[in-house]
Amino acid sequence: MVPPHSGSVPPYYREVYESVRSQTDERVQVEVFQRLLSRTELPSAVQGQISEHIDYTDGFLSKLSLYKALVLIALAQQGKQPSPKLFENCIQEFPKPRDLQTLRMQTSQENPLTVSQTLDKLLARDTVQVELIPEKKGLFLKHVEYQITSQLFKISVYRRYSDFDVFHELLLQRFAYRMVPALPPKRMLKGVLTSISEREFIEGRRRALGRFVNLVARHPVFSEDELVKTFLTFNGSDVQVKMRDACKKMGDEFMTNRFATLAKEYLPADIQAQFASSREVIRNIQNSFHKLRDRAERMAERSKENATDLLMFGRELSTLGSDASPIPAMASSQSTWGLLRQSLKGLSVEFALLADKGAQQGRREEDDVVEKLNLFLDLLQSYRDLCERHEKGVLHEHQKALQKYSMMKRQMMSATVQPKEQVSVEQLESRIVQQENAIQTMELRNYFSLFCLHQETQLIFTYLPITSHILGAFVNSQVQGHREMGAVWNDLQPKLACLFGINNGMQSPLTPI
């Protein structure tokens, strides 16, 4: 192959090379080239012909081999049969791959790094209801089943906790670089949740599973995946096998995302600084939302406790009014207790109604306020988990691979200086090539991990307007609760006046003492 004159290489060729080459050397991984070739949308037979004419060694292309491939792509797009002879005829001036360049321009304009979503669009993707199957509500069953109903697919399926567990495991395998929400625990933790009954635990787990599946179903990447569709729609008993089979066929997201091997060219130069800054902001947001949730839980609990106190207050009044004990003779001439006692008995109805309104208030605060806060907190925690996976997973493995590569290079230099058996030197060379391939893959995965992390960070901020939804739900619950209870208290006022016979010379119970 005749080396081209530097002036004959269009800037576009150099841009493509810089975006796909390995950082450890100047070569291009064959896998990366194949992904690039698939973006041309040339017929598969033509793509195969181009691949046949490209030289590569140990799984890598040289810079010149990549340039040759780009030339053959451009010529094939002109309707010519790709061949080495055609390449030699174009050695003075390389043609530009037309469709590939257009695709790059479109990609640049669309900016795949940018998440073009709004909160309303995310919430409109799907709403999934998770309910306990009525006949399975008993507390002494070996397992609990749930009815899952997707608004998008308009279908109900039945799932056990173990199905959620496998689904969660496969989501982490397929989307290791995305925010995968955590599952609630399967069982009560002994010695920790002693103040919570089993019934309350099962209800709390149902709510948590509902938040999990809704966050997944509304995620712009997850929601388009076959794995999620299978979980939400498959009606067979072997759903776990079906999900595992689907995951095996697809592999992880790095293998299927068309931007995976090109992630580096879309990342901003200061991506690490942006990541650190965003992570700190989101950590502070999470801390504040934790405190908001704790306060909202206390208010909901107080509303339910207030409802219980009102109910018990009314019952005590009823008990007092039902006392049939005769009034002592020494007090019978002056006492109005007999009349008052008869009047008290009927007040339990109003206090029962007040208790019911108070309980409704507590449920509204729990369902509309606390639950929304928990939904966002689940998302924030999944972001925190993702950051830790990035640092302890891909980044850590990449650094270990580089250290191993450096050690092997030193061993090779030592073997070159000191006479060694030829076989051992060749084995060392082979291991170095394998390690270079591994490093190349890890580099690509590291950039793709940062690419996804950048998108997931945007998704967190896209969800932040949920704050206004939460505040709106909180205000509405308070307005409705005070209005309904106020109406009952207002109705009670004239009844008190009538019951206690203030026209018979008695002081009004509404007059301060």
- Taken as a percent bin, the fraction of beta residues is under 5%
Number of helices: 19
Major beta-sheet overview:
3 strands, antiparallel
Radius of gyration: 35 Å
Structural class: mainly alpha
Quaternary organisation = single chain
Mean pLDDT over the residues: 81
H and E order: HEHHEHHHHEEEHHHHHHHHHHHH
Broad shape: elongated
Low-confidence stretches at least 5 residues in length (pLDDT < 50)?
1-7, 101-109
Q: Strand sequence of the main sheet, in spatial order? A: 3-4-5
Total beta strands:
5
Give the proportion of residues in helices: 55-70%
Please provide a written account of the structure.
The protein has 513 residues and is mainly alpha-helical. It is 66% helix and 4% strand. The protein is built from 19 helices and five strands. It has helices spanning 11-20, 30-38, 44-52, 63-77, 84-89, 98-110, 119-125, 161-174, 198-218, 226-233, 239-250, 253-256, 263-266, 271-321, 329-332, 337-344, 348-417, 422-463, 466-499, and strands at 28-29, 60-61, 128-132, 145-150, 155-160. A three-stranded antiparallel sheet has the order 3-4-5. Helix 14 (271-321) crosses helix 18. The longest helix is centred in the C-terminal third of the chain and has 70 residues, at 348-417. Mean pLDDT is 81; it is low at 1-7 and 101-109.
List keywords for this structure.
4% strand; two-stranded antiparallel ribbon; membrane; elongated; 66% helix; three-stranded antiparallel sheet; disordered N terminus; 19 helices; 513 residues; SNX8/Mvp1_PX; mainly alpha
